Amino acid sequence: MEAIKENAFPAKIIEIKDLFNEPAVAINIYLTLVSVLERFGISSRHSRETINRCFSLAKNYLSVPEYERDAHNLLKETGITKEIPLKLAGRSKLIHDQIKPYLIPGSILDLGCGDGKVSGLLKMDGFDVVLADIYRNGYINETQMEFRLIKNHDQIPAADDEFANSLLLTVLHHSDNPIKILQEIFRVTQNNGRVVVIESVYGVDGFQLSEGERHKLQSYLSLNSEQQRMVNIFFDHFYNRLINYTEDVTKKANVPYNFNTPEGWKEIFEENGFVQENVIHLGVDQPIVPEYHTLHVLKVIK
């Protein structure tokens, strides 16, 4: 029998097919997928047919790579994979507007920058931004910003105290060693500098949101903490491995599912020298990527 795998905190990494053993989790995933597909302009009837086929693949695969390939091809048939870049066009502006109020004057390190579009907007604001990631996105050259390739996943290619601000935008739960990443961010960020973190979290009740937002998320918020974590696992995998599928194993998104609760992250931040000055519950602010996000504003004290 295969050994139980755990994430960095540690918590059991539940295989995709086993998520459906929890009826409440399966129902939430189903309802959320209906909403996601309808946002792509797919009719309710067609979206439900697609989801049922996707669920069948998720419950009966022989290997995860097989499921990823077959489910991606199914989604490709519906036109979702073609439409998603258009549907995500406003995502960078949204994130920019969320983080900008918490930045201080000075340089910025955008660690795990992806396509660099968020930092492109910060550059237009007058910030001096350095991009860094474990791979070079094809869009990076268009940003005309300095890019540093991370060759050692546990070490940031930057000098001590080099940056006034550091960004970790939905990066930590994709990191094999999020604690080491935080230690490195602490090293390269100046004393009294600012670190802005956005994370996909679980263990939330939604009381920090408006009544209208809570109502829209009623299905998710009614789940217990572990069930919410299970839903996060499904959608993290769905977005990063099904929609953004690649056969090149070197370019597959890393999905160690290192999710935590907002309180859990606060404790980890403080254990590693940061002071959490604020936490903002964003809720499911990006409906195409339906994960509950919190924004953490950290101060570096050395």
Descriptive notes:
There is one protein chain. The protein is of the alpha/beta class and 302 residues long. It contains 12 helices and 7 strands. The chain has a domain at 91-204 and 234-300: Rossmann fold. It is 42% helix and 17% strand. The protein has a 7-stranded mixed sheet with strand order 3-2-1-4-5-7-6, sandwiched between helices. The longest helix is centred in the last third of the chain and has 19 residues, at 225-243. The radius of gyration is 19 Å and the shape is globular. The termini are far apart. The mean pLDDT is 93.
Order of secondary-structure elements:
HHHHHEHEHEEHEHHHHEE
Largest pleated sheet:
7 strands, mixed
Q: Spans of 5+ residues with little confidence (pLDDT < 50)?
A: none
Mean pLDDT: 93
Structural class: alpha/beta
Q: Please give the radius of gyration in angstroms.
A: 19 Å
CATH architecture label of the domain at 91-204 and 234-300: 3-Layer(aba) Sandwich
Kindly provide the name of the CATH class of the domain at 91-204 and 234-300: Alpha Beta
- Under CATH, the homologous superfamily of the domain at 91-204 and 234-300 reads Vaccinia Virus protein VP39
Spatial strand arrangement across the major sheet: 3-2-1-4-5-7-6
What is the compact description of this entry?
This protein has a domain at 91-204 and 234-300: Rossmann fold, CATH 3.40.50.
List strands and helices in order, with pairings.
Blueprint: H1 23-39, H2 44-60, H3 64-78, H4 80-87, H5 91-99, E1 108-111, H6 117-124, E2 129-133, H7 140-143, E3 146-149, E4 163-169, H8 178-188, E5 189-200, H9 211-216, H10 218-221, H11 225-243, H12 262-271, E6 274-283, E7 293-300
Parallel strand pairs: 1-2, 1-4, 2-3, 4-5
Antiparallel strand pairs: 5-7, 6-7
Helix pairs in contact: 1-2, 1-11, 2-3, 5-6
